[in-house]
Amino acid sequence: MLHRILLIGFVLVSCGCGRSEPQVSRPAVAAHVAGFEQRFTIHIGGRPVQVRLAVLEAERSRGLMHVAALPEDEGMLFLFARPQRMSFYMRNTGLALDIGYFDADGVLREVYPMHPYVEDSVRSAGSAMQFALEMNQGWFGRRGVLPGAVLDREAVRAALVARGLDPDHYLGPAIGSEGRQAPVETRPSPRTAPAPVR
Prior knowledge:
By secondary structure, this protein is of the alpha+beta class. The chain is built from 6 helices and 8 strands, in the order ααββαββββββααα. The protein has a single domain, classed as Jelly Rolls, CATH 2.60.120.1140.
């Protein structure tokens, strides 16, 4: 009898050991990797761009590292769950880029140049940024996308859904679902003027 009780106890303990977190299957990981490579058309200040979404922590950490070239109207959009002061650097990134910081409403507030392989952080001046867009250096100036331009949040929402991610986690409820209105484009103030773009 004692032998049976010990055996049952051992089986129960063995089954209960290990991770309590759900395991991510290899196909699910592969789907997210494939999703990271997908391009989505999103308008910024009325200009269409093809972007990859860097949403998951590993994607944001990787960013455009080891990318040899970007087509002119292609970039990477980084999404965060909450507004914050942002900071990016160029480890293992051989491209000359510009980074645009957007607030939670999708309004472009700041643009800065980023130079290949420079690991000094390029910080946002504002502490309430939620999105960052990396494009080829000079793109914002060449395309006339200046502070005050608005990111098409509904296109971002659709892209997140296509990736199988929860858009409400990054964007909040859909526009109109809680009385929110789409932001209007505004003129940049001297405080939000971009750094010189060469």
